[in-house]
Amino acid sequence: MICLSNINKYYHQGKNAYHVLKNIDLVVRAGEFVAIMGQSGSGKSTLINIIGFLDDHFDGDYTFEKKNIAQMSRQDCAHYRNRNVGFVFQNFKLMNNLTVKENIAIPLLYAGQSFSQTEVKIEQALNQVGLHGYQNQYPLNLSGGQQQRVSIARALINKPKFLIADEPTGALDSQTSKEIISLFTQLNLKSSMTIIMVTHDLAVAQKSQRIIRIMDGTIASDQETGYESRLINTNGT
Ligand SMILES: Nc1ncnc2c1ncn2[C@@H]1O[C@H](COP(=O)(O)OP(=O)(O)OP(=O)(O)O)[C@@H](O)[C@H]1O
Ligand SMILES: [Mg+2]
């Protein structure tokens, strides 16, 4: 589904060019749950921003479902992003002056749907993340874990082809982190959602199917974690 071939990325600061991603080759198949690890500054966010169509300033080829992203216009890219990818961030990025329902509706409104068309979808998304009945709450009245669930519901609402999560448990305590990762595992196993997640936490990464380690802008290793053990963990055994 996602195919990066010889990706190089530079940040230009004045006369200097900083080489942040170096010759990245990466294939992510539909239905995979991938964790990306690496030291701060190694290029993880830069990489997933490219994968999530947020950044089209790079050298090399990115093909998504056989379509070449580098050749798309800015507008097509934005449209593609809205239809294909859901984002989850460390700090949730919810609008605190809007209700849970309104926050989740934002991507639907961008996609051109009226508010009345969105009610059922919002209810389904909230059920999917275990927040039935929270429609009219405000984010600041919810716990960190609940806020992250709202942001996951918002990411899922347009039925994206894949989810990108940048440190989704970075602001959460260890018990809440476990609950959020277990939600990702469920989405991956039951709804076949493709997930690409950056994390600093090895315990979190080990709940994925595959761990990619980035070092100084290159892929240092790419290993399966063992799918069978993941299934057993999900059953709580
Ligand atoms: N917009 C930018 N302009 C210039 N340099 C940047 C920009 N964004 C990131 N960088 C630099 O590129 C490098 C990689 O940044 P990136 O955010 O991808 O790292 P990261 O692996 O996600 O780190 P962290 O774990 O701290 O989030 C860093 O050295 C950073 O300072
Ligand atoms: Mg980062």
From TrEMBL:
InterPro entries membership: AAA+_ATPase (IPR003593), ABC_transporter-like_ATP-bd (IPR003439), ABC_transporter-like_CS (IPR017871), MacB-like_ATP-bd (IPR017911), P-loop_NTPase (IPR027417)
For this record, the Gene Ontology CC terms, alphabetical, are: membrane protein complex
The family line of this record is: Belongs to the ABC transporter superfamily.
Q: Organism classification, top ranks?
A: Bacteria, Bacillati, Bacillota, Bacilli, Lactobacillales
User: Can you cite a GO biological process for this protein?
Assistant: amino acid transport
* MF annotations from Gene Ontology: ATP binding; ATP hydrolysis activity; transmembrane transporter activity
What is the protein named? ABC-type antimicrobial peptide transport system, ATPase component
Which positions fall inside the ABC transporter domain?
Answer: 2-237
Its keywords, alphabetically, are:
Amino-acid transport, ATP-binding, Nucleotide-binding, Transport
Has the keyword Transport been applied to this entry?
A: yes
